[in-house]
Amino acid sequence: MPMSQDAASKCATLADGMADVASWFRNGQDWPLLAPPPRAEWLALLRSSREQLCASLSQCSREEVETVLRARLFQRPDVSTQLGLVFDRPAAVASRIAAAREIMAAGWSHPMAAHAFTIAVLDAQPWEMPIMRDLHTCPEHVMERYLTWLFVRPVYRAIGDDAKYVAWLPEMLDWLKQQVDAPALRQRLAALINTTIRHLDIGMVIYSDVQVRPVLDARAGLIEAMTRQIETLHGSGPGPTALRPANRRIRLGILLRTIMKHPDPQAFCSQFEHFDQERYEIIVYSQDLVDRQCEHDISLYQRLFRFVSAVRTLNGLDVRQMVDRIHADDLDVFVYSYAATIGASPTDLLVSSRLARVQILMNSYVPMSTGFSSFTHVATVAPAPESRASLLGECREEFAEIPRVLLSYLPFVPQPAVRPINRAALRISANAVVLYNGGAVDKIVPVQLDAWVRALARIPGSVLVLAPFNPGWSGVSGATSLHGLIESTCRTHRVDPRRIIVLRELSPRDTHQLYELATVYLGTFPHGSSTSVALALQAGVPAVTRRSPWLRGTGDASIVQSIGLDELVAADADAYVDLTVRLATDAPFRAQVCEKMRAALPTAPFLALSDYGHALQGLFDRLAHESFAYPLPADATGVLPESAERSAA
User: 187: Cβ–Cβ under 8 A, 6 or more apart, which residues?
Assistant: First the structure.
């Protein structure tokens, strides 16, 4: 095939144009209140540009295509997902994907490998394509693009896509581990590991409705291989030993992203400030995160230092230095509150090391195992009996039960809104039923949205309001794919997509107004939304939840059941739809639930911070006694105090 610089230049120009459109989609800067579907002319331009780019690729040599891959568009190779192109699969695109799949199966040695990879980036998702196994034959700058594409967070287009992604992940992670150990890639090992550390993110597994233990085990094996190859990824000291100084308080360390005003330290204070300081010496390790939710708060600092012995920063340290800093404190107990990012970040590498005699994975809003052998226990609320078997199947760690409720929350205190949000602003009629969800965009997966749209179809005059974008999440980068999913789901159930109102990125102060509009709050599944459910109940809005066979989905049910509202827990997706419809259309039933809710809230365990803190200390007292024979206090039981038991009853 003759080389054509004109074709290569055209490809680069088209790619730059698509990158400009992608920037608008990601930022949504002209959205005053709503996050609307993409403009039809922009989508048409994107699709036309993609078709022209794919056609021009056939006129380019392999070297030219490798040059095109340096364009801005491919620096973030999530173009097909973030721009919603995965929802546009006409016959020509499907045929192009099939041809690319055959070439990619042959590996990088195929003369059209770069062409096929470029088409895959534009048309498909990594888990839909074969892994190109001969990575050592891939040009180095293309290798980084390929790995970054492999690590792209998926968009689930249909029910069952989560199972396909989860089934593909162990294969990809095991292959990546083989590349780390491969002699042929020895000269590129640093680039391989650095790209993995920066970009690997498999956090979407928490939004799947299937067993994920094989994924976590494969991720643990990859990190073990990485730390074995790179000396700076593990500590230089021996780590904690069985011997500890006699008569010393229990030395407890906890890893926080920041000590500035932020949900992390606020939750930490509510959980640990009630610990007995004569028994516990608490050390905080801060990563000094500064994001759009962070702000200085003198009262929070004062509250923190009433019970914290020391704060140590980990900012600017490599993994080895972080491990050594924590080892120097000779911790008895190390606590890590899991978040939604699961990858091979410095934090993941840090906690994969044994840092204390007892290493506990504790509730963030995602109770879930890490798969790391460094952890001895996972501490969370007891699952429903039908979930216990799946819990034991997913956890490598021992299970340590926190009584009654997943988390304890600060009581909600209304704050002045930044902008008024009411029915008039959203063009919702005064008598319309408003279903509301304020969970992050990643939680709106096909099985969840399908249930919501089915409920809409059965509730005359209803609307669904979504507030999926938050300064602490992913901004508005998922808006286009979300609208693609909304369009396809509404088309399936013959519901007008205009009945779903998607709001732009709002401050937490603004989103609290949405509870005042809501008739029913919709909890999320398979991943829970326990914080939003707790806020809804405090606002007097009944929340629909679904029972989960997975530990990561137990939070919502634990919140409503802790105040005796078992009737708000549906057994499955169909029952969830039925319950939503009944709450929305059966006014006496809804009034009965709301009255029961109001009566129970004053003694709600998820708002009883002191009781929760004492129960949590009881659990830690027991673990310290079992692990290194620390004496139990006379009243240490690891259960809620008697007063709270009476109140809950």
Answer: none
Which alpha helices (H) appear in 552-641, and where do they start and end?
Answer: 555-561, 573-585, 587-600, 609-628
| In the block, residue with structure tokens 């049910």 | 557
CA 513 – CA 511 distance, rounded (Å): 5
- Residue 354 DSSP class: -
Q: Rounded mean pLDDT of 501-524?
A: 88
3 state SS of 434: strand
Tell me the three state secondary structure of residue 377: strand
Domain ranges of the chain: 5-233, 423-606
The Cα 321–Cα 336 span in angstroms is: 18
Residue 31 CB-density burial (10 A; 0-12 exposed, 13-18 middle, 19+ buried) = middle
On whether the 423-606 domain is CATH 3.40.50.280, my answer is no
**pLDDT band at residue 172 under the 50/70/90 scheme:** very high
**Is residue 172 exposed (0-12), middle (13-18) or buried (19+ Cβ within 10 Å)?**
buried
Q: Which residue has the higher pLDDT, 476 or 371?
A: 371
CB 205 within 8 A of CB 218: no
The answer to whether the beta carbons of residues 117 and 147 sit under 8 Å apart is no
Helical (H) or strand (E) element with 327: helix 319-327
CA-closest candidate to residue 502, choices 83, 27, 40, 34: 34
Please give the Cα distance from 597 to 603 (Å, whole number). Answer: 11
* Cis, peptide link before residue 526, omega less than 30° from 0: yes
Query: Does the pLDDT at position 339 exceed 70?
Result: no
pLDDT over threshold 70, residue 387: no
Instruction: Report the range of poorest mean pLDDT among 207-221, 238-252, 286-300.
Output: 286-300
